[in-house]
Design brief:
Blueprint lengths: L2 H20 L4 H38 L4 H8 L2 H7 L12 E5 L3 E6 L5 E10 L5 E6 L4 E8 L2 E4 L6 E2 L5 E3 L13 H4 L6 E11 L2 E10 L4 E9 L1 H5 L5 E11 L14 E6 L4 E3 L6 E5 L3 E7 L3 E11 L2 E7 L6 E12 L5 E12 L2 H5 L14 H21 L3 H32 L1 H11 L4 H15 L8 H19 L19 E9 L3 E5 H20 L8 H18 L4 H24 L2 H13 L6 H14 L6
Parallel strand pairs: 1-8
Antiparallel strand pairs: 1-2, 2-3, 3-4, 5-6, 5-12, 7-9, 9-10, 10-11, 11-20, 12-19, 13-14, 13-16, 15-18, 16-17, 17-20, 18-19, 21-22
Helix pairs in contact: 8-9, 8-12, 9-12, 9-15, 10-11, 12-15, 13-14, 13-15
Length: 644
């Protein structure tokens, strides 16, 4: 082995060691990974032990079949229950009943079995078929703590909790809420902050307790939720420093089935501690491991969310979504496994909150935890346009006007007025180019097809002498495009439009069907949207008008002309199943564009503009300082140096 080979091997060995060192996880990352592995291992062990527990319960079942349900518990509640549930065995006895927490916005039914929220009904909303809107309901929706006690897997949703009240209803009333202020906490800050709390206690005796405290306020979609534990380390072991919380939910279908509807928005969101909001792609069925601290998780559909927000943080966890393909009753199944910290204090409180309510931007934003980032308002400029231009105007109009068709009309006028100065400049620019069109054609005829470069340079020289900017007509498009795209994001997710009718459209957040086809057209569907048809026809007329008014209309390639007419037809297929409010906005926007063009045509004297162009062509071209400086530098480079 020669010297060069040995040197090469040493360098490779050094690089490998350096790479391994630089890419090794930090101490905090190692701790987080260990905590995640421990949590996952605990969940796996809990599932295995739960399966074993069920097997034992099945084995006991034949003995219990001859007894009544009450007698069954009494007869099995001895050594067998003790072996299954340990110190919690007494809490397995009971009869399920419910306590309802109610305010002006929602009804929350809490079960003593598991101490969990059994169902949530939002009072101000209905399902697409007119039934009450229930976010979740039933035994399949599970919620509870999972931990090991005396080598037994304990899942708190199996046990009966003791409520702090004997009443079956805790109701909060308050001052009337004005339109558009539903769920706004600022209303409660004005002396309307009354609240009531319900405690659900799981008491294992000897100071071992688990308690849930639910707090509801007037005019709020937020529900306080504190987890209080006492003495758990007596039965879990001194080395236990966390417990798991599991939340599983079936997501009912709230909207009618649509190609671009609820199924495209239902998914789970999460927010890492002091970090951005993440999501599982709505089209996927997926499990996402949350390896670091988590502030909140949310199960979201198109217009509603159920979120669990930690006042501190969850240590880590995972979220899972499973799509319900072609299910007319449910959109998807979602679950979250989260890790709660335990310290050595003996008695601990983990403060948290539930949000059960609409995906309304300002309602979510008021909590200052970035819940509003669930809404797909578009990226960067598009999102800013929605947040700072469209949504404030929409909310303002909503306070005073109840007809949402009229609101969309006024919103269209508002947007058109914003960009009117740029549209006017564009019209003037197009008029100038149209007036210079005969001279441009003369230049092109002079140079012919063989000298296109010289022809273009001569045309640009003509524009420069006349003071015309060929790109001036693009200016309003640059300002209008973010608004047009912002509307594309805004209307389909705007809960204000949900189930609001206008003319023949029964729901402006869904497509308006005036006819059902006996067959389905690919990409189009099996229904006919009239607002979409109106938008398409108006768009084709606008393309025709634009071609006639354009200075380059007759010079365009046939393929380009065909493409311009093809675009509205493509939009017909795309927007047929989109929100009818969006098609209505685009239709009105095109109509007002025609109105603006008519007004500008009446106001602008093209003869005067033509005279101004002729006068400018006779004037010497004034060079800018920058251009003069460049020419001077070029001259200096070409001046021959004097010989010494």
């Amino acid at each position: 082995m020669d010297k060069n080979t040995i040197t090469g091997l040493i360098l490779i060995f050094t690089i490998l060691i350096t790479f391994s060192y630089l890419n090794s996880p930090s101490e905090s990352q190692q701790q987080a990974a260990k905590l995640q592995q421990d949590s996952i291992a605990q969940v796996a062990t809990a599932n295995a032990q739960q399966a074993e527990l069920k097997a034992k319960q099945i084995a006991v079942a034949p003995q219990a079949t001859l007894l009544s349900p009450t007698d069954t518990v009494k007869n099995v509640a001895g050594n067998e229950l003790k072996s299954l549930y340990g110190v919690f065995s007494e809490a397995v006895k009971g009869t399920e009943h419910f306590i309802t927490l109610e305010n002006n916005l929602m009804k929350i039914k809490v079960s003593n079995k598991g101490g969990k929220i059994y169902s949530v009904e939002l009072k101000g909303y209905k399902r697409f078929n007119g039934e009450p809107l229930v976010l979740f309901e039933g035994e399949k929706n599970r919620f509870g703590l999972n931990f090991f006690s005396q080598n037994k897997s304990i899942q708190t949703d199996q046990f009966f909790f003791i409520p702090s009240v004997k009443d079956s209803l805790l109701s909060i009333t308050g001052a009337p809420v004005s339109k558009g202020k539903e769920g706004r906490e600022e209303h409660n800050a004005k002396g309307n902050d009354s609240s009531k709390s319900l405690s659900m206690l799981l008491d294992a005796g000897n100071g071992v307790k688990v308690e849930y405290v639910y707090t509801i306020k007037h005019n709020s979609f937020m529900v306080g939720f504190d987890v209080r534990t006492s003495g758990l380390k007596k039965v879990m072991g001194a080395n236990s420093n966390y417990i798991n919380l599991n939340w599983t939910m079936e997501m009912p279908r709230q909207e009618m089935v649509s190609k671009f509807g609820e199924d495209n928005y239902a998914t789970a969101y999460y927010k890492y501690f002091k970090d951005e909001v993440g999501e599982i792609p709505p089209a996927n069925s997926e499990t996402k491991a949350l390896t670091t601290k988590v502030e909140w998780i949310s199960f979201k559909t198109l217009f509603f969310s159920s979120a669990l927000i930690a006042d501190k943080t969850f240590l880590n966890g995972q979220v899972t979504t499973k799509k319900r393909e072609k299910d007319v009753d449910f959109v998807s199944d979602m679950s979250a496994d989260l890790t709660l910290p335990l310290d050595n204090s003996g008695s601990e409180t983990f403060p948290a909150r539930f949000y059960f309510g609409p995906n309304h931007y300002n309602t979510l934003k008021q909590y200052d935890v970035k819940l509003e980032e669930e809404l797909s308002l578009g990226w960067t400029v598009i999102g800013w346009t929605n947040k700072y231009i469209i949504i404030p105007a929409f909310d303002f109009l909503r306070r005073y006007i109840s007809n949402f068709g009229l609101i969309i009309l006024l919103l269209t006028i508002y947007v058109k007025l914003i960009i009117a100065p740029f549209t006017y400049k564009s019209y003037i620019s197009q008029a100038k180019m149209r007036l210079l069109k005969p001279e441009v054609e003369e230049i092109q005829k002079k140079f012919g097809e063989d000298k296109k470069l010289e022809s273009q340079q001569a045309v640009m020289g003509l524009y420069k002498k006349a003071g015309v900017n060929p790109m001036g007509g693009c200016l309003p498009i640059l300002f209008q495009m973010p608004i047009l795209v912002a509307m594309f994001y805004f209307f389909p997710i705007s809960i204000e439009l949900r189930q609001q009718s206008f003319l023949w459209a029964h729901d402006l957040s869904a497509f308006d069907s005036i006819a059902t086809l006996p067959f389905e057209i690919p990409w189009y569907g099996h229904h006919v949207s009239l607002f979409c048809l109106l938008m398409t026809v108006t768009n084709i007329l606008y393309v025709k008008y634009n071609n006639e008014m354009s200075a380059t209309g007759s010079q365009q390639m046939p393929g380009m002309k065909t493409m311009m007419y093809l675009m509205p037809v493509m939009f017909l297929f795309i927007f047929n199943s989109y929100a009818s409010g969006l098609s209505l906005y685009y239709f009105l926007s095109l109509v007002f564009t025609f109105v603006q063009m008519y007004i500008f045509k009446k106001l602008v004297n093209e003869d005067e503009i033509h005279a101004q162009l002729k006068a400018k062509q006779k004037m010497p071209v004034v060079k800018s300082k920058f251009q003069a400086r460049l020419e001077e530098m070029a001259k200096q480079r070409n001046v021959p140096q004097k010989k010494k």
